[in-house]
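Feature request disguised as a bug report, sorry. It would help if multi-protein outputs had a clear separator. Right now it looks like this:
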Amino acid sequence: MNSNTQLSPCSILLLAGGRGQRMGGQDKGLLEWQGQPLIAHLHRKTRGLSDDLIISCNRNQEKYAAFADQLVQDDHADFPGPLAGIRAGLAVARHTHLMVLPCDVPQIDASLLNAMREAASQHPDKPLMVRQGEHWEPLLCVIPTALAAAFESAWAQGERSPGRVMRKLGAVALQCPENDQRLANLNTPELLSQHNPVPERH
């Protein structure tokens, strides 16, 4: 973890604000995997990386509060999607960069989190997105908070895709292998029950 001390501090946003459609309407971040809520796994992986841990949640705030320094929620009703949560995170982030992670990737590891931060530090004015094979992963990204106004402008113009906003802003890719198990989205009850943890890589 020595590399962390050489990197500028970043805020971290954990996205737990969705409708939970694939989970039958349940609050995804609070569903258990390997004996703990998904949000607890992400908290454990990220707590040591930031003194500004933000969770975007639209319900069960009292349960999420134990895992965060700040809570944010969408400023529009009816679950308008992850871009709303990202905007809310950018508005309150205390550092120059905001790392964004979804709550349903509990197998993400320290080496990938550090690689995201290091790659972002090499392009400090541009968003960084993970790219898995040929597929962008816009909810695994690092965004300069100076770009908050650009995100607000895109939202006001009707844009709802975080990936499109970041690509228009010249997003840099952090390439990961296709089918990287660290990025597996455990976003259905079946996937939660099937997946076993992968060994942590530092």
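(second protein starts here, but nothing in the output says so)
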Amino acid sequence: MINKPSKWAQTWLVTSWEFTHFFKWKQELVSKLIMLGIGLLVFVWQQVKDDTQDMYRIAVSEHINLPQNTDNFQFIHTSLDLQTLKIELSEQQNWDAILIEQDLADGSKQVSIYSQDKQAWLEQLQQQLIKHYTLNFATRLGLQEKQLAVLNAPARFDFSYLDERIKSDEKTSSATAVGILVLLLAGMFTSFGQLFASVTGEKQQRVTEQLYACMSPQTWIDGKILGQMLHAIKAMTSAALTGLLGYAFFSVIIGGNSIDMRVIDWAMLPWFALFSLCGIYLCTAFMAAIAAAIDDPNHSAKTSIMLLPLVPIILTFLVMDSPSGWALQFLSYFPLTSFAAMPVRMSVLDVPLWQPLLSCAMLLMLNLWLRGAAGRLFKMGMNMYGKEPSMKQMMSWTISDRSTG
């Protein structure tokens, strides 16, 4: 007599099949190697850039009053005419650039800079020259350097909030909140596409009867939910790594700055992981149940219902600018939206520990109920061919006490 596998073994079998069905390890390996190569390029570029500080030679006329040396530029006064300097610039490479200055009627200067080709350091040269000419012009007007600094920044702004829960580092809080919602969107869209293709394809191919002979509908949907959750987690991880590499690339190579990871609130990561897992389960179970009720994926009106899990993320986007308001507070406790709203609220506010724990507990209870409801919907929906159940029938199945086995 052959022993039938346990329900946990069957669930894991469906989970692993559902995950490997869409997981192509060669493609994943290539994509991760590309990301690793980009990260290595950023690292090498930063090391090379930090270790070699070039000094660029700028030829200027003798009458121009410029400091001899600045951070990366050496201004060399010369009596040669412009044409001779251009020849030396193009042929002998004695100079990196030529600077010519002319007086304008309004008292300002017309500065012309000649270089062999377009270089990134020319923008840095321009910024240093602007500071120099601004200080010189202010001196001619009788302004001292301190007075000029006050004129350029006439007021300092300091925002204080009576709500002491608001975190002081607004840049870090906002970046963390937006990052949380973007990653959730990446996970949701991944689950939506793959679940829709998987469930509707199996229903049209009528493989339900064979599968029901091997395992219960609840075991089947449990495996599907867990398998798609793994895909969503993979998609969110890949999106996070891609975002970090993109940030490092633009900071180091494009902007010429060092990588500053203080923009991320690292203390939020455990809470984000917890609420993300609960939220992904909630949305994946809902989408699997609705997909099972779709008979013709090309013409069914229920396809749009599968997009409802995006509503909590959209609502959180709309109210996140008012973290102390009642709207975000309500969404952070309401179980259907708390997986997105509570992490965002925690990223911008200091909340007591009992609040996220209470929110997570209610979300877990909803998931526990939804597991059974999704199993019932999945069983009934997959057994119906040629006709889609009405919304009234689907609502009755969610509250039915009939066991799915």
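Even a blank line would do. Unrelated, but nice: The beta strands are 56-61, 73-78, 97-103, 109-114.
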